[in-house]
Amino acid sequence: MMKLDGVTVFVAVAEAGSISEAARRIGLAKSVVSERLAELERVLGAKLVQRTTRKLALTEDGFAFLGHARTILREVEEASAQLSERRGSLSGPLRIAGPVGFGVAHLGRALSAFLAAHPGIDLSLDLDDRFVDVAADGYDAVIRHGAIRDNRLIARRLCATRRVLVAAPGYLAAHGTPRSLDELEQASAVHYTNRNSDWRFTAADGARVIRPRAKLRVNNGLVMRDAVLAGIGIAMLPSFFVHEKLADGRLVRIDIGIEPEGAELYIAYPPNRSASAKLTVLIEWLRRSFGDPPYWEAGLPARAERKS
After folding, report:
1. Considering the entire predicted model, what is its pTM?
2. Each residue's pLDDT tens digit, 228-237
């Protein structure tokens, strides 16, 4: 008889690409994962995975079975979720991904409170600034700041956020405070490498774009903030990274009379995984936790007047 834990292991191995990574994701010993996978292959009478010294790949039978295996697990999870709803409780696994900086600064505390309110949920959170493939990597949902590039996903808005130009007081004392786009373009900049180096602004006559010289490029917003605190240059950063430093005066907001282009915070999930009760409750929890406008923008000055 085919066992559900064998199906779970097979899907984890297929999505992770290795037995060791699958074992890490589902919290089992590597030997247990190997044993359950071997048992499933014996029950099915088919080789699902081809193992070599360098990599692991699905066989033709493995590819054929994978879709069915995912359907089995999804239906079991949905059935369990429906029973939990009937009992007035939520339970079971929930796996999400999010950006590193935002996860450290804000997401962690919101999720800790969520788990305290729903102790039956087993949450896995992977923080990664790369744009993960939600379905292929086995996530229920992904949290992103900015546009969702994958049009196969269903995106649910959490809140709008602002980007602000910031610098350390020491940098501005040494180099002057830019008062226009032309002056800003001559400044030393700290750029985020996962976006292009353009700084976009919203003007009455449309978007305005400048390309300041990069003093530093880095793929993490918290490292960018620390570089700005050290006086390396000016950065355009989401308000959720800098609100506390602006409040205590360690960073200064630069106002050139035109507002940096904003962004929105989303949670997205594959259309073939309709939002489960757990995910629906999580989405509403995050919306209430962050607020709209979000709590980290409570002390920010009013938006700059737009100039053409």
Report:
1. 0.70
2. 999 999 999 9
